Write a sequence for this structure.
């Protein structure tokens, strides 16, 4: 437990030291009577290309290339350096053209989504193990369908076993829709348990009106409800972690295309091109 904060602290110190050294190198380049923005711009472009290549490593490489946690750390480290390089490149100045504002705003959105992904990668994995082992994302629909079948069989069997329709009526009224599809995804992202608490409280109330056999059925339904709730929590958290790159990556590719246009325009104007 003490090793993880130490590693994160060392990573933060490493980013700060690397950013200072990078800024000093760019400043030294400028003191040699050269425009330091050109050097910072090329470093920025190279950093963006490398970060996009890291995102594609799973599709390009056919053999394992180290643990995923290592690549996440490398990506985060370089991402913070790219943000620092952007500051060096712009020299804290706001753009003076529509295209400049487009690049500037796009980079801020890219940096913001990258920082969000950095936080999600640290926040979500520990929460996935709160209720036990994480469930493979691809198996969640299959497991949910199995829980729905078991819940229906349990509720309908209560009519035969306890000669009471109260459990079946409660199932049809509330639980049938609950098991039919994912529920309370937003609540799970916020860590709220109010919905599941209400469902289990309703089942506990039903248990007070049935015989002992019926209470066993209610207990089984309650167990299935809790399992379904944990499955929905897994879906919400894993879905957010998996869906974030579909926002981050398109912005990154868009910036790369705009950067090519930016380079052509800068060098075109600097060389006296019309």
């Amino acid at each position: 437990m003490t090793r993880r904060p130490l590693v994160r602290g060392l990573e933060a110190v490493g980013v700060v030291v690397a950013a200072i050294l990078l800024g000093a190198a760019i400043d030294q380049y400028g003191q040699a009577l050269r425009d330091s923005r050109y050097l910072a711009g090329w470093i920025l472009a190279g950093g963006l290309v490398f970060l996009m290549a890291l995102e594609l490593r799973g599709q390009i490489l056919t053999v394992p290339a180290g643990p995923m946690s290592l690549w996440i750390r490398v990506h985060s480290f370089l991402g913070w350096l790219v943000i620092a390089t952007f500051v060096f490149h712009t020299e804290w100045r706001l753009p003076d053209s529509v295209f400049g504002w487009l690049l500037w705003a796009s980079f801020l959105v890219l940096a913001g989504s990258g920082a969000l992904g950095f936080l999600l990668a640290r926040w979500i994995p520990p929460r996935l193990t709160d209720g036990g082992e994480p469930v493979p994302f691809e198996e969640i629909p299959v497991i949910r369908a199995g829980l729905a079948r078991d819940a229906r069989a349990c509720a309908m069997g209560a009519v035969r076993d306890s000669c009471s329709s109260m459990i079946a009526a409660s199932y049809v009224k509330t639980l049938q829709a609950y098991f039919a599809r994912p529920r309370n995804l937003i609540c799970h992202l916020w860590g709220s348990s109010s919905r599941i608490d209400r469902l289990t409280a309703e089942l506990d109330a039903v248990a007070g009106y049935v015989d002992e056999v019926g209470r066993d059925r209610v207990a089984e339904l309650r167990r299935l409800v809790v399992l379904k709730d944990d499955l929905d929590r897994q879906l919400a958290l894993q879905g957010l972690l998996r869906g974030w790159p579909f926002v981050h990556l398109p912005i990154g590719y868009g910036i790369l295309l705009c950067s090519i246009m930016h380079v052509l325009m800068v060098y075109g104007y600097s060389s006296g091109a019309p």
